[in-house]
Amino acid sequence: MTQDPSATTDARPDLANMTLEELQSFFRTVGQEPYRAGQVMRWIQQALSVSFGGMTNLSVKLRETLSSIARIGRLEALGKITSEDGVTKFLFGLIDGSKIESVHIPTDDHDTLCVSTQVGCAMGCRICRTAKMGFVRNLTAGEIVGQLLEVRRQVSDSAITNVVFMGMGEPLANFENTVRAINILTDPNGPKISWRRITVSTCGIAPRIVELGNRVRAKLAVSLNAVTDATRSGIMPVNLTYPLDSLMAALKEYPLPKRDRITIEYVLIRGLNDSDADAKRLVKLLNPIRAKVNLIPFNDEMSTEFKTPTPQRTVAFQDILMSKSLMAIIRKSRGRDILAACGQLASDQRRDC
Ligand code: SF4
Fold first, then answer.
1. Looking at the annotation, which residues are catalytic?
2. What CATH number has the domain spanning 76-338?
């Protein structure tokens, strides 16, 4: 298990921050049968219990023991704001006083939750406001999954079936906790989110992309945003460490399930990456991998540096991709009036879900 930032304030282990295996190990350590792990995990992750007192299939003695030696971590609900189109941005407080945001995006047939994986971010993408916060700390797996649990507590009629790791932070820079969070989310004793409905979005930490695919099953999204190293390095410093060659090699190596495609996110910026030549280069670049492209016109409402492309340019760019049989969808940011499009969580401007 990884470092728990709450350890300084409460030394008791947080059972909401444990995978099933870790819970089994915990119960063995305290002299209990490991099957207790599944029971307690279901209470925490499915019944949304926040104390041991109501866990009626445990003896009273065991409940008392657990209350004294362990705790159930949860996020503090600090507020929420709902946009004109039904998207809700939640603000949560963490045990050390840090704040994170999550975005609930309802659609006709399912709801999606966009979760944060770090407080702030160290990756420095110039089209993203989270970058301006700098990096504060990684979230624990419990804090990542806890965003789903808290939203389920607050939106009782929600049918959240999809979770996207696309909020504040770079999930692959918080690799172990991202993997552990996916293990909790997909556990039959956990929130029971299918791996097919979990998407991890990265700015392109190439070696971790392959490692992620080898450790867990999840859908993959990559913020590409440019088709030359010069342009990409100019807006995404990660490209200086992992240039396009290494990123594309990692995407080719990613163990993609049959019929799946990698989602390529491409924020279109006027005059920077939205030319016909850029579109043609994008087709060529993606030719060796099974991919679909989300085209996201840059939202320049909060930026003086970059501009929104014209609608005609956006459609022309899409047409070039489609004419070469590359699936491309123009994504409109939902929740723009509350800056809730994923990646705009802390007034961030990155991409849509
Ligand atoms: S786009 Fe993502 S990886 Fe880049 S700075 Fe923003 S949160 Fe970090």
1. 101, 342
2. 3.20.20.70
